[in-house]
Amino acid sequence: MQNTNEEDIMLEDNNLLENLDKFIEETSNLKSHINSLNLIQEHCNSLASSLNLHIVKMSALSQEMENVQEKNKNLDLEIRNTTLLYDELKKLLIVLEIKDEHFEALHSLNTPISKIERALDILTSVSLENYTLDLALEKKELIQTQLKSFFKKFSTFFATILASPTPTGELIIHTDLYKTITPYKEILKYFKKYENYTLISSVYTTFSKDTYNHELSYQLKIITKVINHDMDIKEAFDILFQSIFLVYRAENFFVKRVILPEEDCLEMLEFIFRDFNNALVNGIKKIYKNAPVTCLNALKSVIEKYRPKNSEKIFKNKNNFEIQDKESLNKSEKEEINESYKIIFGKLILEVESFYEELKQDFIQKERSQYEYEGRKKGLIRTINILKKSEIEEINSSLLSNVIESLSNYPPKKYSDIVNKRILCYQILNSTESNSFLIDSDKIRLNEFEDKVKDEFEKETIGYVFKDEEYEKRIKNIIKEIGELKIVKNEFKKICFENSDNKNEIENIFKTTEY
User: Fold this and answer.
1) What is the mean pLDDT of residues 492-505?
2) Helices (H), 390-470
3) Is the overall model pTM greater than 0.85, yes or no?
4) Is there a contact between 314 and 324 (Cβ–Cβ < 8 Å)?
5) Fewer C-beta within 10 Å: the chain N or C terminus?
6) Helices (DSSP H) in 97-174: which residue ranges?
7) pLDDT over 70 (residue 300)
């Protein structure tokens, strides 16, 4: 037991010795590492010292650069101020050295236009608002006085130009006036920039408005004379509306080029032609009273020719001639209103069309009343005369319906009424034969009505003519009543032939009877 303990103790001692040997060996290695770390620490300390030195140097350099930058900024500001001062002094010097010839150029309107334009270019470009020098203020006052005096003289001169032409009476393009004013278009631009332009523009618009109203009134009187001489009113209306269109277009281009360059001239054109539409409508009303059918025919023709193709889309509705939102229109629709004259002419045509519709309904109503007032026979003659001339399907259809209804409700009291009804039916049919302004349904209705009247005429003729032996006397009386209407006479003859046993006698009666 004791030996075992001793062995254990010896084993522990051996282990302890081995551990000590290992520790001693590792400690020796650790010392070498410590030496390396010391060297590293010394190197780091050296680097830290160098870094601190560089930081100090950089800080000093940064401060020096800030000082230089501040000096540069002040120097740059000084240079700019000096440059501005130089420029202003240069401008002032130029202004103070404006030649007397530029002031003298504005003394008289007889000065060549090029010299006036040059003087205006120089004097209106001067800006002395920021100068307080007495010399500058004196020059400023001199320039303003000279310009004010010139523009006043030019306003008077411009009014004289407009007062000089004597209206010819005809609705024309004022080419000569345009040629007279156009050379002054640059002066008008300066006038607009420097002076209140309302005076010039109002003088021009008032002159143009009065002139065109006078010319339109004269043109409408000419059309009235055309009616009285049985000339072609349709052609006269076409010339009138074509003249209006050309006048609108010419005025548009002139105003846009000379009076209001680079601006929308719609408002000015609408003012110039503000009373034009009413004057035209009133003139048409007078023509309509003298010759309603031919007037309506002519209106229909010009409306069809000049009406804007896409007016339903371009304008808000039939009674409101304001333009729709342009963004909602396609290219072709926009082209119809891409110039101011197209807009005001389109509005004019639509207003005339609206008035035309009113006149058309007025005419139909009056003719229906007149038909009832004059009686069936006179009323039919009146209607026939209208149908021979009318080119308006709605009027023809309405009057035709009125006649058919009247004759259909015509209760014959005696055979002569049957004959008269057949004659009236033939006359109405004959009056519409050459009228191409009837809708197909009206033609069909009229033919159906004629067939009924012919059947009634045949039936009543057979019963009346051959009711006893005195048919010869009755045939002769009917022939005389029919008169020169060959178609009705031949129809009557055919009925007699087909219902008589003695055709030679019938033939002889027709040959020997005068009408």
Assistant:
1) 88
2) 393-408, 415-433, 440-465
3) no
4) yes
5) N
6) 100-105, 113-124, 134-163
7) yes
